[in-house]
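Forum > Structural Biology > Help requests

Title: Can anyone predict the 3D structure of 4-diphosphocytidyl-2-C-methyl-D-erythritol kinase?

Hi all, first post here. I have the sequence for 4-diphosphocytidyl-2-C-methyl-D-erythritol kinase but no way to get a structure on my laptop. I'd be grateful if someone could post the structure tokens.
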Amino acid sequence: MIVYPNSKINIGLFITRKREDNFHDIESCFYPIEWKEALEITLSDKVGFSSSGIDIPGNPDNNLCLKAYELLAQNYDIPEVHIHLEKMVPIGAGLGGGSADAAYTLKALNELFKLEIENSALKKFASEIGSDCPFFIDNQPAIASGTGTTLDTFELSLSGKWIMLINPGLHIGTAEAYSNVSPKNIDFNLKEILLSTPIEQWKDIIQNDFEASVFPKYPELQKLKSLLYEKGAIYASMTGSGSTIYGIFNKKPQNIHLDKGNVWTGMLK
Ligand SMILES: C[C@@](CO)(OP(=O)(O)O)[C@H](O)COP(=O)(O)OP(=O)(O)OC[C@H]1O[C@@H](n2ccc(N)nc2=O)[C@H](O)[C@@H]1O
Ligand SMILES: Nc1ncnc2c1ncn2[C@@H]1O[C@H](COP(=O)(O)OP(=O)(O)O)[C@@H](O)[C@H]1O
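Reply #1:
Sure, ran it for you. Structure tokens for 4-diphosphocytidyl-2-C-methyl-D-erythritol kinase below:
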């Protein structure tokens, strides 16, 4: 079976509290995008993982796809498989690529072995793998709260708008990024603002709290955000803990050439 894990952007990311367990409470809109990779699961005589495309740092035995397999194997009697990932989405980029791989592994195994696990239970398994992971089970625009695993799916349609993502090739670790922010409570409702405010006004209201600590350390990221506005973006932001910067456009933006890194342009659905 072949599946195509996509990625996400965060539209607004407010870090509201440091918790006793050292994680942080957030309020953010997760929106799926079509920057995808390919994941193949085949029956095998032993459990294994391989990958091609972008190099994944660390030991392949610790890949999130295997973590997802092992979690299901502890709870269901499933055969052994080999998982091959063609890695296309940048890593440590704020796009949730690894989380999507794990969530799609759970969904594919559920389908392949007719386990009939409901999405609510799949999301519980996913939350044991990572905070971004449950979102990719339903893969619908949602307001994420708590540590990012409480999801309120809602009808935000940016369909027909264009998006350009610039990944400058910097790997920003999520844990380190969280350790550099000062949490601040918010006194507004992100969902209401997104639904009631024209997107052209979002830039004055909707921010990503990681930018305040990440931009001073990597000034080139602030420059990329300004560049997207110069090219006609109606809203631009860093996604997640970085380092990818995106712009949303009313029409197809002109391509940007970078000496280093990746640019991806597509339509929002
Ligand atoms: C920042 C966000 C925003 O969507 O995404 P990315 O930038 O990674 O894509 C997420 O909160 C990242 O989720 P994810 O990448 O799954 O993180 P996890 O593996 O669960 O956690 C990695 C580490 O980040 C910190 N962490 C994560 C989530 C959270 N709500 N509070 C935290 O403090 C913890 O130190 C944790 O050990
Ligand atoms: N399938 C995978 N794809 C990407 N990264 C993975 C995968 N499995 C494990 N990892 C590890 O997860 C880390 C990337 O996680 P993170 O910084 O949260 O990235 P992202 O911004 O894509 O969510 C890397 O250190 C990488 O070694």
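The mean pLDDT is 97. Residues 197 and 205 are 10 Å apart (CA to CA).
Shout if anything looks off.
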